[in-house]
Design brief:
single chain, alpha+beta, Jelly Rolls, 5-stranded antiparallel β-sheet, 4-stranded antiparallel β-sheet, 6 helices, globular
Protein backbone atom coordinates (compact mmCIF):
# COMPACT_ATOMS: atom_id res chain seq x y z
CA UNK A 1 0.00 0.00 0.00
CA UNK A 2 1.16 3.46 -0.85
CA UNK A 3 -0.88 6.55 0.03
CA UNK A 4 -0.38 10.06 -1.32
CA UNK A 5 -2.29 13.20 -2.23
CA UNK A 6 -4.11 12.98 -5.58
CA UNK A 7 -3.01 15.67 -8.05
CA UNK A 8 -6.53 16.46 -9.37
CA UNK A 9 -5.23 16.89 -12.92
CA UNK A 10 -7.52 15.86 -15.77
CA UNK A 11 -6.81 12.55 -17.45
CA UNK A 12 -7.35 8.83 -17.17
CA UNK A 13 -8.50 7.94 -13.65
CA UNK A 14 -6.46 4.71 -13.88
CA UNK A 15 -3.16 6.62 -13.93
CA UNK A 16 -1.33 7.24 -10.61
CA UNK A 17 -2.23 10.98 -10.40
CA UNK A 18 0.69 11.58 -8.04
CA UNK A 19 2.18 15.04 -7.56
CA UNK A 20 5.76 15.60 -8.71
CA UNK A 21 7.39 15.49 -6.25
CA UNK A 22 5.06 13.06 -4.51
CA UNK A 23 3.18 14.17 -1.40
CA UNK A 24 3.05 10.94 0.65
CA UNK A 25 0.44 10.21 3.31
CA UNK A 26 1.42 8.05 6.31
CA UNK A 27 -0.51 5.17 7.84
CA UNK A 28 -0.88 7.41 10.92
CA UNK A 29 -2.53 10.13 8.81
CA UNK A 30 -4.92 7.50 7.41
CA UNK A 31 -5.73 6.38 10.96
CA UNK A 32 -6.55 10.01 11.82
CA UNK A 33 -9.39 9.85 9.26
CA UNK A 34 -10.39 6.39 10.58
CA UNK A 35 -9.00 4.36 7.65
CA UNK A 36 -7.45 1.07 8.81
CA UNK A 37 -4.76 -0.91 7.00
CA UNK A 38 -3.05 -4.26 7.45
CA UNK A 39 -0.48 -6.07 5.31
CA UNK A 40 -1.33 -9.79 5.18
CA UNK A 41 0.71 -11.96 2.79
CA UNK A 42 -1.60 -13.73 0.31
CA UNK A 43 0.04 -17.11 0.85
CA UNK A 44 -1.70 -18.60 3.89
CA UNK A 45 -3.84 -15.48 4.44
CA UNK A 46 -6.95 -17.27 5.72
CA UNK A 47 -5.96 -17.61 9.40
CA UNK A 48 -4.92 -13.94 9.74
CA UNK A 49 -8.00 -12.66 7.88
CA UNK A 50 -10.22 -14.95 10.00
CA UNK A 51 -8.66 -13.52 13.17
CA UNK A 52 -9.20 -9.91 12.04
CA UNK A 53 -12.76 -10.77 10.94
CA UNK A 54 -13.54 -12.31 14.34
CA UNK A 55 -12.01 -9.38 16.23
CA UNK A 56 -13.96 -6.79 14.19
CA UNK A 57 -17.23 -8.74 13.93
CA UNK A 58 -17.20 -9.54 10.21
CA UNK A 59 -19.55 -12.48 9.77
CA UNK A 60 -19.86 -12.76 5.99
CA UNK A 61 -17.61 -12.56 2.96
CA UNK A 62 -17.51 -12.96 -0.77
CA UNK A 63 -15.00 -12.48 -3.58
CA UNK A 64 -15.27 -9.96 -6.39
CA UNK A 65 -13.40 -10.26 -9.67
CA UNK A 66 -13.33 -6.76 -11.09
CA UNK A 67 -12.12 -7.13 -14.67
CA UNK A 68 -13.49 -7.12 -18.20
CA UNK A 69 -13.62 -10.91 -18.04
CA UNK A 70 -15.29 -10.99 -14.63
CA UNK A 71 -17.88 -8.23 -15.17
CA UNK A 72 -18.44 -8.78 -18.91
CA UNK A 73 -20.94 -6.28 -20.41
CA UNK A 74 -21.34 -4.48 -17.07
CA UNK A 75 -17.61 -3.64 -16.86
CA UNK A 76 -17.63 -0.02 -18.16
CA UNK A 77 -20.74 0.95 -16.18
CA UNK A 78 -19.38 -0.60 -12.97
CA UNK A 79 -16.00 1.13 -13.30
CA UNK A 80 -17.78 4.47 -13.85
CA UNK A 81 -20.08 3.92 -10.86
CA UNK A 82 -17.21 2.85 -8.56
CA UNK A 83 -15.43 6.16 -9.37
CA UNK A 84 -18.42 8.33 -8.41
CA UNK A 85 -17.76 9.97 -5.04
CA UNK A 86 -19.94 8.20 -2.50
CA UNK A 87 -20.23 6.90 1.05
CA UNK A 88 -21.72 3.80 2.67
CA UNK A 89 -23.61 3.28 5.90
CA UNK A 90 -21.39 0.24 6.55
CA UNK A 91 -17.64 -0.18 6.59
CA UNK A 92 -16.08 -1.10 3.26
CA UNK A 93 -13.58 -3.92 3.84
CA UNK A 94 -11.37 -5.19 1.02
CA UNK A 95 -8.54 -7.71 1.11
CA UNK A 96 -6.67 -7.77 -2.19
CA UNK A 97 -6.00 -11.28 -3.53
CA UNK A 98 -4.61 -10.32 -6.94
CA UNK A 99 -4.35 -7.32 -9.22
CA UNK A 100 -4.02 -3.66 -8.34
CA UNK A 101 -6.10 -0.51 -8.12
CA UNK A 102 -6.76 2.70 -6.24
CA UNK A 103 -9.09 3.81 -3.46
CA UNK A 104 -9.41 7.57 -3.15
CA UNK A 105 -10.64 8.90 0.22
CA UNK A 106 -11.56 12.44 1.26
CA UNK A 107 -9.36 13.87 3.97
CA UNK A 108 -11.21 15.69 6.74
CA UNK A 109 -11.32 18.63 7.21
CA UNK A 110 -9.34 19.65 4.07
CA UNK A 111 -11.58 17.70 1.65
CA UNK A 112 -8.45 16.82 -0.36
CA UNK A 113 -8.30 13.46 -2.12
CA UNK A 114 -5.85 10.91 -0.76
CA UNK A 115 -5.07 8.13 -3.24
CA UNK A 116 -4.34 4.68 -1.79
CA UNK A 117 -2.60 2.34 -4.22
CA UNK A 118 -3.48 -1.23 -3.29
CA UNK A 119 -1.94 -4.55 -4.24
CA UNK A 120 -2.11 -8.22 -3.20
CA UNK A 121 -1.86 -8.62 0.56
CA UNK A 122 -3.39 -5.23 1.40
CA UNK A 123 -6.39 -5.20 3.74
CA UNK A 124 -8.13 -1.83 3.79
CA UNK A 125 -11.10 -0.79 5.93
CA UNK A 126 -12.93 2.40 5.03
CA UNK A 127 -15.25 3.58 7.81
CA UNK A 128 -18.94 4.18 7.29
CA UNK A 129 -19.60 7.79 6.35
CA UNK A 130 -16.28 8.54 4.61
CA UNK A 131 -16.50 9.88 1.07
CA UNK A 132 -14.47 7.75 -1.29
CA UNK A 133 -14.24 6.19 -4.74
CA UNK A 134 -12.45 3.28 -6.41
CA UNK A 135 -10.81 2.64 -9.74
CA UNK A 136 -8.66 0.02 -11.31
CA UNK A 137 -5.20 1.01 -12.48
CA UNK A 138 -3.91 0.32 -15.99
CA UNK A 139 -3.80 -3.44 -15.31
CA UNK A 140 -7.64 -3.35 -15.47
CA UNK A 141 -8.13 -6.17 -13.00
CA UNK A 142 -8.35 -6.84 -9.31
CA UNK A 143 -9.68 -9.70 -7.22
CA UNK A 144 -10.71 -8.85 -3.68
CA UNK A 145 -12.22 -10.59 -0.70
CA UNK A 146 -15.05 -8.43 0.64
CA UNK A 147 -15.96 -8.76 4.31
CA UNK A 148 -19.27 -7.71 5.88
CA UNK A 149 -20.57 -7.40 9.44
CA UNK A 150 -24.00 -8.63 8.38
CA UNK A 151 -25.44 -9.84 5.07
CA UNK A 152 -23.35 -8.85 2.04
CA UNK A 153 -24.49 -5.50 0.73
CA UNK A 154 -22.92 -2.61 -1.06
CA UNK A 155 -25.16 0.44 -1.16
CA UNK A 156 -23.43 3.61 -2.38
CA UNK A 157 -24.86 7.02 -1.53
CA UNK A 158 -23.41 9.54 -3.99
CA UNK A 159 -22.23 12.79 -2.44
CA UNK A 160 -24.97 15.39 -2.19
CA UNK A 161 -26.57 17.71 0.35
CA UNK A 162 -28.63 14.71 1.44
CA UNK A 163 -25.57 12.53 2.14
CA UNK A 164 -23.84 15.45 3.84
CA UNK A 165 -26.73 15.31 6.35
CA UNK A 166 -26.78 11.49 6.58
CA UNK A 167 -26.49 10.33 10.24
CA UNK A 168 -23.62 7.95 9.34
CA UNK A 169 -21.74 10.85 7.74
CA UNK A 170 -22.41 13.04 10.78
CA UNK A 171 -21.17 10.30 13.13
CA UNK A 172 -18.04 9.84 11.00
CA UNK A 173 -17.27 13.58 11.09
CA UNK A 174 -17.82 13.63 14.86
CA UNK A 175 -15.33 10.73 15.31
CA UNK A 176 -12.55 12.23 13.17
CA UNK A 177 -12.84 15.85 14.27
CA UNK A 178 -12.70 15.23 18.04
CA UNK A 179 -9.57 17.04 19.21
CA UNK A 180 -8.96 18.58 15.77
Amino acid sequence: MRAYYYDNLPGDQRLPHDYIPSRPVSVEALKAIDVSYWSVPVEGYQAKIDAIAKERGYKNRDTINCSKEGLKEAYEDKIRSFFEEHMHEDEEIRYILSGTGFFDVRETPSDAWIRIAIEPGDLLVLPSGIYHRFTLDESNKIQALRLFKEEPKWIPYNRSEETDANPYRAEYLKRVTVGA
